[in-house]
Amino acid sequence: MPDIIMASGPFCYAIDHHWAKLPDHIVWGNTHAVAVDSQDRIFVAHTSCEASPTKDTIVVFDPEGRYLYSWGEQFYGQAHGLTLIDEAGQELLLLVDIAHGIYKCTLDGEILQHTGKPAFYDENSLEFGAANVSVAPNSDLYLAEGYGSSFVLHFNGEGILLSRFGGWGEDEAHTRWAHGAFIAEVDGEPLLHVAVDDPSQIKRFTLDGVFHSLMPGTFLHPRNIYAKDNLWAIPEMGGRLTLIDQSTGKTHHLGHWGKTMQDIFKLRTGPRNSFPDGIFASAHGVGFLSNADMIVAEWVEVGRVSKLARV
Question: Is the whole model's pTM more than 0.70, yes or no?
């Protein structure tokens, strides 16, 4: 039986760390992201690894964790972010490849569009490293590029660069290690929420790239924000999952490991049985099923994908 994790307040989940039933030809690499379609099919992005006979980086499951199919060998070692979108009634995935940018794909892996590294990076000898993308109501794309020069890149829906903002710096508008990009209204205004490190914060920007405010809260290296109705889930690399109930404004925490980041960097490379049940070693991505159950992917070398069923 899965363990029970209780947060302060109304949130109680049964967690199953062995939910994903992998076939013999797939071995997890670092598990990074989760997306869930309208049929409750769960798409997990991972890096794959040398030990895996098949190098597919997108693995698809049903809600019970049964393997359905996989694809994405060309993203080996680099698959990182997943965002599900709807275009004219067709569900598509935006897959973020750390080295190569954004790929718009069908749910069975056909590439429809590639938005790659803008020319100014090479022109100015700048590093590029993409993390996650968010889509505005007008189909513009906002890419958190925190593994390179830490800009936020603003593209139109066709992949044309419109602007860049943030980057390394010391002022309030810096986006050092920009990792997450999430758009939500605050007091009626759509704002881009960018999860950054050094320090651990979530910064709010207007969609024109102007710094607006800090999101209230204390975070342990937040990776992104994922939402289902009034519930926001924030996976944190520091070994915790934070839930914010937008209807009450209250914050709850699940599975806090209590380790320092220095310890986590060392421990995350251990075998799967070295991670205690009922904790998150390094929460990285979240997907919500239609019934608000969650699938959580963790940034550990051997991969870890757990299901949290509300009880």
Answer: yes
